[in-house]
Amino acid sequence: MHKKEAMLDPWIIEEILRKEREKKEEEERRKREQPQPEKDPNQDPNQNQDPKKDDEDKDRGVTIIDI
């Protein structure tokens, strides 16, 4: 008994590849179309934009407890 391997027709393979290309192009197009947040030209680029994050960074530290 010979086991026949299932093969897709070439036109089906082409359709699958075409749909994959279209999906990838659509994802790339969506990425390009997403609005980017506007940057304030007067703001220091090194300055942290989230004030809560500044507070969290100040409170960080190490406490050593001698047992």
Polypeptide structure, described:
This protein has two helices and no strands. The chain has helices at 10-33, 51-59.
H/E order of the elements? Answer: HH
Helix run count: 2
| N-C termini distance | 76 Å
Largest sheet: none
**What is the SS-derived class?**
mainly alpha
Rg on CA atoms, Å: 28 Å
Amount of helix: 40-55%
Mean pLDDT: 77
Global shape: elongated
Low-pLDDT parts are none
The proportion of strand residues reads under 5%
How many individual β-strands? 0
What key phrases describe this protein's structure?
67 residues, mainly alpha, 49% helix
What's this entry about, in short?
It is built from 2 helices and no strands. It is mainly α.
What topology emerges from the helices and strands here?
Layout lengths: L9 H24 L17 H9 L8
